[in-house]
Amino acid sequence: MPVKVTIYDIARYANVSPSTVSRVVNNQPNVSKATRARITKLLKEYNYIPNETARSLVTQSSRMVGVLISDIRTTHHTDGIFYLQRELSRHGYSCLIYNTGTGDEEQLRSIQVLQQRKVDAAVLMGSIYQTEGMKRALKKHLSSIPVFICNGYLDLPNVYGIIADERGGVSDCVKLLAGKGRTDLAFIVNQYTPSNLLKREGFEEGMTRYCPGKTPVVVESGTSLPGVYQATQDLLRQHPAIRGIIFSEDLLAVIGIRALTEMGLKIPEDVAVIGINNSSYAEICTPTLTSLDNMLYDLSLTMAKDLYSVLQGEHINRKVMIYSEIVERQST
Amino acid sequence: MPVKVTIYDIARYANVSPSTVSRVVNNQPNVSKATRARITKLLKEYNYIPNETARSLVTQSSRMVGVLISDIRTTHHTDGIFYLQRELSRHGYSCLIYNTGTGDEEQLRSIQVLQQRKVDAAVLMGSIYQTEGMKRALKKHLSSIPVFICNGYLDLPNVYGIIADERGGVSDCVKLLAGKGRTDLAFIVNQYTPSNLLKREGFEEGMTRYCPGKTPVVVESGTSLPGVYQATQDLLRQHPAIRGIIFSEDLLAVIGIRALTEMGLKIPEDVAVIGINNSSYAEICTPTLTSLDNMLYDLSLTMAKDLYSVLQGEHINRKVMIYSEIVERQST
DNA sequence: TTGTAGGCGTTATCAT
DNA sequence: ATGATAACGCCTACAA
Description:
Two copies of one chain form a homodimer. The first copy, chain A, has helices spanning 7-14, 18-25, 33-45, 52-59, 75-89, 104-116, 132-141, 166-179, 194-210, 225-238, 250-261, 280-284, 296-311, and strands at residues 64-69, 94-99, 121-125, 147-150, 159-164, 185-189, 217-220, 244-247, 272-276, 290-293, 319-322, 325-327. Chain A is an alpha/beta fold and 332 residues long. Chain A has three domains: 7-50, Orthogonal Bundle (434 Repressor (Amino-terminal Domain)); 64-164 and 296-325, Response regulator (Rossmann fold, 3-Layer(aba) Sandwich), CATH 3.40.50.2300; 166-293, Rossmann fold (3-Layer(aba) Sandwich).
């Protein structure tokens, strides 16, 4: 048995033409019961597997979806990739993954690679791709395939956005705290991605609505964990009246809780804490963390299904919003 | 400007043959300075990007590496993928990623897809692929390309294994605890992967060497977090003499610490705790967690570089071991 | 230095 | 129902 078995080999063994074999391989009609059986048998016997590359070339479809992510190590995005890949592979699609970092030039290169690889669709994980530079790149390199942005949106005819309502969600967090009589609140954010900007807006909006007369305190902590620790303690030294803090991510909140505890403050008695993402961090920290669930599961699943629909030629809404929900635990 | 620009179009515009354009595109010699310049200009002007599919078909190389992972949401494996992808993309390679789950049939299907996609190499993330079933599948479907197993090994001519010395590492953990006068020790494992079996062996080996006369206590907790919590508390109720616990993963250790604390035990005074992986969990929990660093960073990087070497036709060791190191923190 | 022609493995369009 | 033939876009001897 040859190392590589082609459709030609099978044709020879079966005394038919390659076309007939192709028909059998692709379950097409117009093949007699008998020959179909004979060929099917040979296919198994010789362990024939079609060459997807050749197939892609002629069908003009690679059955691959390119996935861009700034850093695959960030957990809430891998969740998305997981569902996406699972859903797509059920339909014979594969996922090509690139870590793009956060720099423009590297992101652009990734887009070019996707074009070169002739992916059938692209998925951009995260709001950080919601930029003008990316818009230009998509226009230039990927204008002919559907592009999905997970938690972001760009106004281009082939771009679809599935967006979490983090603005409304954070506003609801303020409402929750205000309902517990806490109106001196702060928001700690590591860095301003488009998503985090929305959270900040939600915070300020919530403050004006639910804590009238109080000044919203916003702190940008940077991404390093010691930096977050420091920023949290500094915040309470400068604003001792603070009774509640919302962090832009669970991980930050976990660090923050630690910083507060080691200052001698009790959670939630002295200061209530809320995180965002409802990740596993929220469950394992002490006290367990109240967190805004931005429904990344729903979001990913919606995206995966919508993506497949579009690939099938269906028409769907280009912009979808998924509502967030607060999961309350011990920290509030 | 046409939507898709081929090497033929450029040839026409430049009044040369397609082969000449191909030479320019691939930086080959034997093109006059003048025509090269002319063609280069047109290439830019028309935004020509070679069709990788066609290229793959003729060169018999897809420049893709298939990556298999049981679940991309497990953090320590995504670290590996990160480094791998970064290293490979520097050389024009792309990563095709599949979540295989833990079932045999799904894993087999993934292998078939890799064969069908004609990947140039495969990477299996995690010791769970070190099975007889996988060996058969590799023999049947991927015998002609290099296959790397991250933290595992199979004795096949085309299979390379990069393995963390977790056995020795866990033994060292026992030594560390014994050195602090703690000889009543336990090992809590969620489930028995090949990697975790080695850890267990290391534990038992360390016990006989460093804690002679003491019985090694081993508990299998299952993977659910409440299960781990319960198992930890049960352990101490049944064996109140236990003075130190090694958990098969940091995450388990974090849960364990919590379980112990809520029983009224002090860490590390009453019970010392060690985790494995030296992940971010170790840094954020309270108290911070002493952890066995199995050098996944080195391991991934080594693998990425070795993989590229093999792709270049170089000859390397089929089995490499990376030594582990203990990072001591507050929990011991 | 440049061009011609064949082939990579498959599908698709015609005939037969 | 089956087969011949021409793509798909590119690379690569070989010829000129």
